[in-house]
Design goal:
The chain is an alpha+beta fold and 494 residues long. It contains 13 helices and 14 strands. Strands 4, 5, 6, 7, 8, 9, 10, 13 and 14 form a 9-stranded mixed sheet that branches. Strands 1-2-3 form a 3-stranded antiparallel sheet. The longest helix has 22 residues. The radius of gyration is 25 Å and the shape is globular.
Length: 494
């Protein structure tokens, strides 16, 4: 078996399977199924329906899914929201599915026919992983002739280095709402959405009337230590002691099949339950300095470190609770007044949280619905948040007894707003965990209702729907569409 692996027979088979799957994928997309993509699940290639978040492990299963009731419902919504002209230029893996860049990369891979190389998040983050992800220091001369809408974001933690990065403006999104009114006063938000306009979509007249949002969306191509510190500087230190320069490196020993040299294979190994406690105890004896400077020679400790590295590399979006996928588009929130990411006021290291691009858009809509709903209830809103004195107030029938009010967009995970801070003082969080969980429920319910009854617009969009429990309550009221704010979208190329 080892000879076959060295000769590369198994890799050739995998490459042929991938070519066949990509051929099927091209045929599907030629038929209009642009929302289907190819993902790797272990050693298999899986068709994935982005509209339904459904993996299909064969052509037959995919065909059955495309003819199912769930897919037909999601597709009918996508035809009036996501499959219009001027599509969202993002591919985040959970809603947006722009595949233009992905198809170009796939064609290049098929033409080159090179051997499969592990391009997982661990390899992408190694310091000697090649020039493709190299981060170039910012040079002011690059700004000569640059778009005046581009900006420079200072102090971001990227691959464990604090850098100033250039964010290029890519377009506007327009937040609008369909309201019910009675005697000139808004009484109910029926729908709330964000419509993609692009760079030239917003006219000068609209820009003069519709205000720009105080917060913007900054997108990145995701990798696992983007915005945070890594567990290890060099994942290769998790290899066996034979690959290092330790004190026993010159001593020959028998190769153990239970201790594979391939890091990608060893990451998938399961730990023995009897060794779990002892391995954690052994791991406590290895401080960060020792882990980062030497190759770990204890096999049980290496196994525990691999497990922790695998867990650490998996990041969950706190809005939708789905995994963040390497290479897909992720987004952070920028405070346009201060020029900082919202997480910058919650730490001094430059760390920041990332979410799916569509989830950030939904979070903006959620915050705007709360702000507008609070104005409908009280007509006041000078502070970012305050406790309600009225108990049992119901807003749009989603969640009753809301204990806190929202008056600004903030980070869904750390609750930062990106305000300027002085010295070592950081911004304090506002909402308890129980309340942030309720916020997530409202986002989910609003999104589900939108799929069943979306707003038909000229451009691609995504949004919320807040159905009335009783149609009699809005009977006789007038409907009005209000353009609320323009949101700027930026792209950071690393």
């Amino acid at each position: 078996m080892s000879e076959k692996k060295e000769l590369g027979f198994q890799k050739t088979v995998v490459s042929l399977k991938e070519q066949l799957a990509r051929t099927t994928l091209r045929n599907l997309r030629a038929q209009g199924h642009t929302y289907v993509e190819l993902r790797e699940d272990g050693k298999r290639f899986v068709f994935f329906c982005t509209l339904c978040l459904a993996p299909c492990y064969s052509d037959a299963i995919l065909l059955e899914h495309l003819n199912g009731n769930l897919h037909k419902e999601r597709l009918s919504c996508a035809k009036v929201t996501l499959l219009r002209e001027n599509p969202w230029p993002f591919n985040d893996g959970v809603l947006f599915f722009d595949s233009s860049t992905e198809e170009e990369e796939g064609e290049e891979e098929e033409k080159s026919l090179i051997s499969c190389v592990d391009t997982g998040p661990l390899q992408r983050c190694s310091s000697d992983g090649g020039e493709r992800l190299a981060i170039v220091a910012y040079d002011e001369s690059r700004m000569i002739g640059a778009n005046r809408d581009d900006l420079l974001i200072p102090g971001l933690l990227i691959k464990e280095r604090t850098l100033d990065v250039e964010a290029k403006f890519i377009g506007f999104g327009r937040i609008a709402a369909r309201l019910f009114e009675k005697k000139g006063r808004s009484t109910w938000i029926d729908k709330l959405w964000c419509e993609w306009l692009g760079k030239d979509g917003a006219s000068d007249e609209e820009k003069a009337v519709v205000p720009e949002h105080d917060f913007a969306v900054v997108t990145f191509s995701y990798f696992y230590n983007l915005g945070r510190l890594g567990l290890l500087d060099h994942p290769s230190r998790l290899l066996t002691s034979e690959s290092g320069n330790g004190e026993d490196s010159g001593r020959k020993r028998k190769k153990s099949f239970s201790d594979p040299e391939d890091t990608s294979e060893s990451l998938c190994s399961q730990d023995d339950s009897s060794e779990e406690v002892s391995s954690r105890a052994l791991l406590a004896d290895y401080d960060d300095h020792l882990v980062s400077r030497r190759v770990i020679k204890n096999r049980t400790v290496r196994r525990e470190l691999r497990k922790q590295q695998r867990i650490f590399s998996e990041r969950i979006c706190e809005v939708c609770k789905q995994k963040m996928l390497p290479g897909k588009d992720a987004a952070a929130i920028l405070n346009t007044k201060t020029g900082k990411l919202v997480c910058g006021s919650r730490n001094l290291l430059g760390a920041f949280h990332l979410f799916h691009v569509s989830c950030v858009v939904h979070w903006f809509l959620f915050c705007e619905s709360e702000i507008l709903g609070n104005k409908m209830v009280s007509g006041k809103g000078k502070k970012r948040c305050t406790k309600k004195h009225q108990s049992g107030v119901k807003w749009n029938g989603l969640v009753s007894d809301v204990s806190w009010q929202i008056f600004s967009v903030f980070c869904p995970e750390c609750q930062g707003t990106g305000i300027n801070i002085e010295g070592d003082v950081i911004e304090r969080d506002t909402f308890p965990l129980s309340q942030t969980w309720r916020f997530g429920v409202k986002v989910s319910e609003g999104r589900k209702a939108w799929v069943k009854n979306p707003e038909k617009l000229e451009n691609c969009s995504t949004g919320f729907h807040f159905p009335q429990q009783n149609d009699e309550s809005v009977k006789g009221q007038e409907e009005r569409v209000q353009n609320m704010k323009l949101v700027r979208f930026y792209r950071v190329e690393l």
